[in-house]
Specification:
The structure holds two protein chains of two kinds.
Chain A lengths: L4 H39 L1 H12 E6 L6 E2 L5 E13 L7 H11 L4 H13 L6 E4 L4 H10 L6 E10 L7 H4 L1 E4 L2 H6 L10 E5 H5 L1 H5 E2 L1 E7 L5 E8 L2 E2 L2 E4 L3 H11 L4 E7 L4 E8 L5 H4 L4 H9 L8 H4 L9 H10 L9 E3 L2 E3 L6 E3 L7 E3 L1 H7 L2 H21 L22 H8 L5 H8 L9 H12 L3 E3 L4 E5 L7 E2 L4 E4 L5 H16 L6 H4 L7 E7 L22 E8 L6 E7 L9 H18 L2
Parallel strand pairs in A: 2-12
Antiparallel strand pairs in A: 1-9, 2-3, 3-4, 3-5, 6-7, 8-11, 9-10, 12-20, 13-14, 13-25, 15-18, 16-17, 19-22, 20-21, 23-24, 24-25
Chain B lengths: L1 H5 L10 H5 L3 H21 L4 H23 L2 H25 L1 E3 L2 E6 L4 E2 L1 H17 L8 H19 L4 H17 L4 H21 L2 H11 L10 H13 L10 H4 L11 H34 L3 H25 L18 H18 L7
Antiparallel strand pairs in B: 1-2, 2-3
Helix pairs in contact in B: 3-4, 3-13, 4-15, 5-6, 6-7, 6-8, 6-14, 6-15, 7-8, 8-14, 11-13, 13-14, 13-15, 14-15
Classes of the chains: A alpha+beta, B mainly alpha.
Chain lengths: 616, 374
């Protein structure tokens, strides 16, 4: 090596220089690194803390228990039953097909269950339990319990499931819950329903969904990267939904439903004083339990295809011509508007003709009623008297007076799905049909036919209003709410909707007296029904034409197909002096009102009033 | 500063333990402190896996032994055998390509029957030794002709290792060789030219990269594009470090690490565990330790008496730095994900032994000096 001192010093100097440069280079890079760390750990610290918490903290919803539904006497109409489902935790299973085959020997596993399970199995982490079967029977639970040791990783889990212990009883009023679907999701607060599987679909279950549902609780849990829950950090318990006490009387409801037998129709009973619905019958009915966990296609199709349409809520959505049950209201309108008086006479020859017209508007009684005034016209249901009165009033006054009783508008009852009926007017006909109003249409409106349509609920409400001398209450079915386990009941307030202006109380008294004559007078159309009643009651029969008869054609029930037969109607309230119950009954294609609908109304009133008397 | 580094003065009359054992106290103690800190972090990242920590302790023992043994070798002797070491290493690299075992998708291991051996580890030392050997023969700075030969001495093993493929190690060896050239006085003009050449060569390099290496570059440029796939490592390590803040979540309290969100947390990404649990403060302590070691090594190199020792010592110090900056740059999202451990902290054996052998060599350089008049 030819190393001289000079070279050595030069190289030593060069190396020193380069070493310093290398250190400066290293220092620069470390400074950049420190800058980066300051950014991450100081400047953006909050951001990364949030991300870190988001990483590890998951929020699991705790669904609230749904409120229960009771009748007015505390009989339970909708409750939550423990229901058992079978869950499998895949990571604990060695041989899944073998396990499933073994399980199938103990518990019925349908193809659909298996398919759903396989679908979930493919996309669920192995430590998360997957449901295989819902709603195990007690027997299945017991069978599995014996062999449980053979199935590590298979568990029976208890949950709550909506149950309607009385099945079809009052199903149209109470309604049912079903699985939350796409349409529901657009309307609900998604976070409050994050753990909820079921939601009210129809009836009170739907109208009072917010009250019944309650508020979701949360469990903040720490999870690892796989999503396994390690521990609970914070637990916010759910607030259970409130219980509902209905105005409905389950026993009365039962009696009313029984009274229909095989017939189809509706019956609504209201407490006139409060508007409380005592019975809400729509026949035929159905078992709401079928809908809770998804009805199978065949059963649903069968319900849909049934000629009697059991899913159709006739009480709220059935729109029928009220027929002669409208006459007391028309008569009262005639008196109150001064068109007629209690003593004004009309001669009934059995038909009515508009001046200068050939067409004869027939009375139901071929030979006519002779000379009638208001009371006898109502008691005997004389059509000619009301043709004449309606014509004198004119459609405008008729419409305005009937509107005060709630015809043509939804009553606003707290059961979902109500329809408004139809109270025709000159304006309505112009707007809907672009035709003028004809006097003949006024005539038939006067006897509750023609365009006029009313729901059974509207009829019951109008009857209650009449019985209370114009004090009109909104019909309602929920009496009070109850925070779970709290003995205090919070009544749902219901103030009168309106007081119909009274010209002369005597007019109301006359109409009510006439209705009393219908059932308990010597010539009343329903005197057979009212004869032996231990209380004074007022009523009015009605027979609504489904099928228009040609001129001079005679109605022959036997010849007509059942579906084209007249609807049988009856409205009533009792006791006359201090009304406790008002009823409207419609029996579809039942024929005459006095023969079919009136006895049902009587049965309902008996059940309510006689029971009330004996049990103070 | 100078007294700190000068505490050990060459004094013929004082044959202290450092000279007897051929160890450098400052380097030794700082390395012990560093590996102790590393063990604490590893204990946390292992999540109670005592076996893992125990194995790391054994490896540390082996690595420190390797350091002590290498420190006994006289520099002149090492210098003499350098070409042989380099040649054997080169042959072994070729052998690996021919018959090597495949582990983790790369061909790095040579099975010698009793031990599996990674020739690329040997080359981490052999390449800078060889370049230093070659350049120390003539006066510095080297002529362009000698530079190109030196360049070839570097490039051949680097390419062989890159082909295995082991991007991290080839990068380290390339920089080890480069720093020898730089410290030998590589002209700035040439350096600028090489930088330009490298820029132009990037597309060529891209062409030679394996798919997973390309993916790492793409992921580096935009980690959020695939948060659950390739970008997951970087996103999670940034969250770990950033959520640590100034003082960290506390030892054993890092949620990112303990809840297993952070991948590779005991090996390449252990820096993020330190950042999460000890915060900027803890990282600062680590960086101070590292800086002290680097400065001490450079100081040792400047005090060396011959060119070979100087170039080799300086290059080893700077390679140590490259290790640190590449790993921390990767974990903080400044650099692409390159599989390099955090020296003396990450779990893993072979590279630590090589690293400590390098420190042994530096100690040897410092304690085998002839006495010169000052």
């Amino acid at each position: 090596m030819r190393v001289t001192i000079k070279d050595y010093l030069f190289e030593s100097h060069l190396f020193m220089q380069r070493s310093v440069q290398a250190l400066v280079f290293a220092g620069l890079l470390i400074a950049i690194l420190v800058g980066r760390l300051v950014y991450l750990q100081v400047v953006a610290h909050e951001h990364y803390i949030t991300l870190s918490d988001d990483n590890r903290i998951k929020i699991l919803p705790l669904p609230p228990n749904r409120g229960l539904i009771f009748d007015r006497n505390g009989i339970i109409l909708a409750d939550n039953l423990p229901s058992y489902r079978l869950e499998i935790t895949p990571e604990q299973i060695h041989d899944m097909p073998a396990t499933l085959d073994e399980l199938a020997k103990l518990i019925e596993i349908r193809d659909v269950d298996r398919k759903r399970f396989d679908r979930l199995l493919a996309r669920t982490p192995a430590f998360k339990p997957i449901p295989l079967r819902f709603h195990l029977s007690d027997e299945e639970v017991a069978r599995f319990a014996i062999d449980r040791h053979r199935f590590p990783g298979v568990d029976i889990v208890a949950g709550l499931s909506r149950h309607y212990p009385h099945g079809p009883l009052a199903a149209h009023a109470v309604g049912y819950v079903g699985r939350v679907d796409e349409r529901d999701l657009q309307q609900i607060d998604a976070s409050n329903y994050s753990g909820t599987t079921h939601i009210g679909k129809v009836g009170v279950e739907r109208t009072y969904e917010n009250t019944l549902h309650g508020t979701v609780g949360y469990r903040q849990v720490e999870t690892n990267a796989e999503g396994r829950v390690l521990r609970t950090l914070v637990r916010t318990p759910p607030v259970p939904g409130k219980n509902l006490y209905l105005t409905l009387d389950a026993e009365l409801q039962h009696v009313a439903e029984q009274a229909f037998g095989e017939r189809t129709g509706a019956a609504i009973a209201i407490d006139p004083d409060s508007g409380a619905i005592l019975a809400f019958v729509s026949e035929p009915t159905y078992d709401p339990n079928l809908f809770v966990n998804g009805i199978d296609t065949d059963t649903y199709q069968a319900l849909q295809d049934d000629d009697n349409q059991p899913l159709f809520n006739r009480g709220l959505r059935g729109q029928y011509p009220p027929g002669s049950t409208l006459k007391p209201f028309v008569g009262l309108g005639g008196l109150e508007t001064g068109i007629t008086s209690e003593t004004a006479h009309t001669y009934c020859p059995g038909y009515y003709q508009l001046p200068g017209k050939a067409r004869k508007y027939r009375d139901w009684k071929r030979g006519g009623h002779g000379t009638v005034e208001l009371r006898s016209a109502i008691a005997q249901s004389c059509d000619v008297y009301f043709y004449d009165l309606a014509l004198s009033m004119g459609i405008d006054r008729l419409h305005d007076y009937l509107a005060q009783f709630g015809f043509g508008k939804r009553t606003g009852v707290d059961i979902s799905g109500e329809l408004p009926g139809l109270l025709p007017s000159r304006e309505w006909k112009r707007a809907m049909r672009n035709q003028p109003w004809f006097p003949g249409e006024t005539l038939i409106t006067g006897i509750g036919q023609g365009f006029l349509l009313a729901t059974p609920l509207q009829l019951a409400s109008a009857t209650a209003t009449l019985s209370e001398y114009g004090r009109r209450m909104k019909p309602h079915i929920v009496a009070s709410t109850q925070i779970s386990d709290d003995p205090e009941l919070a009544p749902v307030m219901n103030d009168p909707l309106m007081y119909i202006p009274i010209e002369d109380r005597e007019h109301w008294h006359a109409v009510i007296d006439a209705m009393h004559q219908v059932v308990q007078g010597p010539h009343g159309t329903a005197r057979k029904v009212g004869r032996d009643a231990p209380y004074a009651f007022a009523g009015k029969t009605g027979t609504a034409q489904v099928f228009g008869l040609k001129q001079e054609e005679k109605y022959d029930a036997a010849k007509l197909e059942e579906k084209l037969r007249d609807h049988s109607l009856f409205i009533a309230f009792a006791p006359v002096d201090d009304p406790k119950i008002a009823v409207a009954v419609i029996v579809e294609n039942g024929g005459s009102g006095s023969a079919v609908a009136a006895p049902i109304a009587r049965t309902i009133m008996d059940a309510y009033l006689i029971k009330s008397d004996t049990t103070p | 500063m100078s007294t700190l580094l000068d505490s050990h003065r060459e004094d013929a009359s004082r044959r202290d333990w450092q000279h007897i054992l051929h160890l450098d106290a400052m380097l030794l103690f700082s390395l012990v402190a560093l590996s102790t800190l590393g063990l604490f972090v590893l204990y946390s990242s292992a999540g109670g896996d005592d076996q893992l920590v125990l194995r790391q302790c054994i490896r540390l023992g082996i690595a420190f032994s390797a350091m002590a043994i290498v420190a006994q070798l006289r520099t002149q002797w090492v210098q003499r055998w350098t070409p042989w070491l380099y040649s054997v290493g080169l042959l072994l690299l070729l052998a690996v390509l021919a018959v090597g075992d495949v582990g983790k998708g790369a061909q790095r291991w040579l099975d010698l029957g009793f031990v599996r051996f990674q020739p690329s580890e040997m080359m981490k030392l052999a390449v800078p030794m060889m370049v230093a050997w070659y350049l120390s023969d003539k006066r510095l700075p080297p002529s362009p002709g000698r530079l190109s030969i030196a360049g070839a001495l570097i490039v051949v093993p680097v390419l062989l290792i890159a082909k295995q493929p082991d991007l991290g190690t080839s990068l380290l060896i390339a920089s080890a060789g480069f720093f020898v050239l730089f410290l030998a006085g590589l002209s700035w003009k040439l350096l600028g030219g090489l930088t330009l050449l490298a820029g132009a060569g990037a597309p060529v390099l891209w062409h030679f990269m394996r798919d997973y290496q390309r993916q790492r570059v793409i992921t580096f440029l935009n980690p959020e594009q695939d948060p659950l796939g390739a970008g997951y490592h970087i996103i999670q390590s940034k969250i770990a470090i950033g959520s640590g803040g100034l003082f960290g979540k506390g030892w054993l309290n890092g949620t990112q690490a303990h809840l297993e969100f952070l991948p590779e947390r005991s090996t390449d990404f252990i820096f993020a565990v330190l950042g999460e649990e000890f915060g900027l403060f803890g990282i600062g302590v680590l960086l101070v330790m590292y800086s002290f070691i680097i400065v001490r090594c450079i100081y040792i190199a400047t005090q060396a008496q011959d060119t070979y020792s100087r170039l080799l010592g300086g290059s080893l110090a700077m390679t140590f730095f490259i290790y640190i900056i590449v790993n921390t740059g990767m974990v903080t999202g400044l650099l692409p994900v390159v599989g390099l451990p955090l020296p003396m902290v990450s779990y893993g054996g072979t590279s630590m032994v090589t690293l400590m052998a390098g420190f042994g060599m530096l100690m040897s350089i410092h304690t085998h000096r002839k006495l010169l008049p000052t």
